[in-house]
Design a protein that fits this description.
548 residues; alpha+beta; seven-stranded antiparallel beta sheet; six-stranded antiparallel barrel; 10 helices; 36% strand
Length: 548
């Protein structure tokens, strides 16, 4: 009896201790715990409508400059910048801001998007132009006798022959020249005979001799020939005509035996020790060229030998056919390496106007009517911005308006972003939008309120009709949760003509669309529902930007 009573008391004691321990553990469990543990404990009991955020799953770390490089652990790039964590789902559920483009992180990696910061710096520029070598016009001489005569014998008889000043060119016979020699010889003999005579006779004879001498000198007869005539006293039938300049014979009209008239050019001699390069500078660059600037000349015949000259003159005329202005560059020609009419490449370094905001040339998308730059606004978010450009260098371009110093701009794959996200729709807000068309009766009035242009929406429906000329399609679609639309029939525009080719009346499709302008809904992607269902995977979407 006593033994059974002791056993009963032991069981009661054990139960009391267990109950006390459970109570203590319960109160201890109610104390604050780690956020992750609390979320795990409450996650199962939380109602479906609970707004509490759960911790996102870390996928990998990506390169901060957009390069296609990922890492499973935190690391730094060669510039010391931390890699950026990428989580499952990312921020795809958040709509893009008005006028922005959103691209998923995975697509950014695949496209190879790369950004650089716009920076303020001095924009060095080199103006390049094509040119040609020409003789210095101030060093071109014409050999033209001042008297009538005949060419008895040619001494310089080929074009291209070098001559020096005073070198004999040809022997000439001229009745006028023979008569002038005789007059001078007689006058000199008279001066000698009247040496001892005084008065008027000696003075008159002296004046006659000087007049005959001046006539010979006016005809370019050399002093040596005149001295020989004075000493011998005999007129020669032919005299040697000498060159009046040094250079290269570029033109020869003299032929042995020919008759020439006073002033007729028999030779043309050019001094090529210094030449000109006439560069044809394009109209948009001519304002940068100043006299005195240094120019570098490259000749195809001498690829490893640069030449250097000075800009001496900018011509005041423009060639309407080529829209270029001639610019004269003067340079020395040692060894006569530069030949007239040679082709030349001219580079002129122009002075910068100070520090300006610049972006790489590859960052600009030029449509012909305006220039667009993509600004990175966050992870996978880009803002197309219209800019006004200024001077250009080989790698960079000045941004006068539209981009500030330090803003990150897309410099690689910007055209792929254009094709991926329909850039035209995203930048539609830049131009003044036309008044919105009246809403159809079946479309709720509040659907357009607060909607951000460029945000993509999805729906399923059936094709009713296709108007290829107008570029529109009529669809009977189901509800659109993102716009709170009920099922209805409405007309959409196609972003590209290739989309209409895949649409047939009665076909069931799954499509994506955006609002390009108020009241204008544009389809950007189409998938045939039957093909995706039978294949067990979504069919590839039509490429709306195939025409870009």
């Amino acid at each position: 009896m006593k033994q059974s009573t002791g056993v009963g008391f032991g069981v009661v004691a054990v139960a009391i201790i267990a109950a006390g321990g459970g109570y203590w553990l319960g109160h201890r469990g109610s104390a604050p715990t780690a956020p992750g543990a609390s979320a795990a404990m409450t996650g199962a009991s939380a109602p479906a409508g609970d707004t509490g955020k759960q911790e996102k799953k870390l996928l990998y770390y990506r390169n901060p400059m957009g390069l296609p490089d990922t890492s499973p652990v935190p690391k730094k790039d060669p510039m010391g910048m931390d890699y950026i964590a990428v989580y499952a789902g990312g921020d795809e559920s958040e709509p893009a801001a008005p006028g922005q483009i959103r691209i998923s992180t995975e697509k950014v990696q695949k496209l190879g998007v790369r950004t650089e910061a716009a920076r303020s710096r001095t924009l060095d520029r080199t103006v390049r132009a094509a040119g040609r070598v020409e003789p210095d016009e101030r060093r071109v001489y014409a050999i033209a006798p001042k008297f009538e005569g005949y060419v008895e014998r040619l001494l310089v008889n080929v074009t291209g022959q070098p001559v020096r000043k005073g070198q004999p060119l040809f022997e000439v016979y001229s009745p006028e020249l023979v008569s002038a020699q005789r007059e001078y010889a007689i006058a000199m003999q008279g001066v000698a005979s009247l040496k001892d005579a005084g008065g008027t006779a000696q003075t008159g004879m002296q004046q006659l001799a000087e007049s005959s001498l001046q006539r010979l000198r006016s005809w370019d007869i050399s002093d040596e020939q005149i001295k020989a005539l004075a000493s011998s006293g005999e007129a020669k039938r032919t005299l040697t005509f000498r060159s009046t300049a040094s250079g290269i014979v570029t033109e020869k009209k003299a032929v042995q035996g020919m008759r020439f008239m006073p002033g007729e050019a028999l030779y043309q001699v050019a001094d090529l020790s210094s030449v000109w390069v006439i560069a044809d500078v394009f109209e948009q660059d001519i304002g940068l060229i100043k006299s005195g600037a240094t120019a570098k000349i490259r000749i195809n015949a001498y690829p490893g030998k640069p030449f250097e000259g000075k800009v001496t003159y900018v011509y005041p005329t423009l060639k309407a056919e080529t829209r270029t202005v001639p610019v004269r560059v003067e340079l020395a020609n040692p060894g006569l390496l530069l030949k007239p009419a040679m082709f030349a490449q001219v580079e002129v370094s122009v002075s910068a106007k100070g520090s300006v905001v610049t972006v790489p040339v590859s960052a600009v998308i030029d449509s012909g009517t305006r220039q667009i730059v993509l600004i990175q606004r966050g992870e996978g978010r880009f803002e197309p911005r219209e800019v006004r450009l200024g001077a250009r260098s080989d790698t960079d371009v000045e941004v006068i308006e539209g981009v500030k110093d330090g803003e990150p701009v897309v410099v690689a794959a910007n055209f792929l972003i254009d094709a991926e996200s329909n850039l035209k729709a995203a930048i539609g807000g830049f131009s003044s939008a036309p008044p919105a068309a009246p809403a159809k009766a079946e479309m709720p009035a509040e659907t357009g309120a607060g909607l951000a242009k460029g945000v993509s929406h999805q729906a399923d429906g059936t094709v009713d009709s296709v108007d290829a000329k107008a570029g529109t399609v009529s669809l009977s679609h189901g509800p659109v949760p993102s716009l709170k639309w009920p099922a209805m029939t409405m007309e959409f525009k196609a972003a590209n003509a290739s989309l209409l080719q895949a649409l047939k009346p009665g076909a069931k499709v799954s499509f994506e669309f955006i609002e390009r302008q108020p009241g204008e809904w544009v389809i950007t992607s189409v998938k045939p529902m039957a093909a995706s269902a039978s294949a067990g995977a979504p069919a590839p979407a039509a490429k709306p930007h195939a025409g870009h």
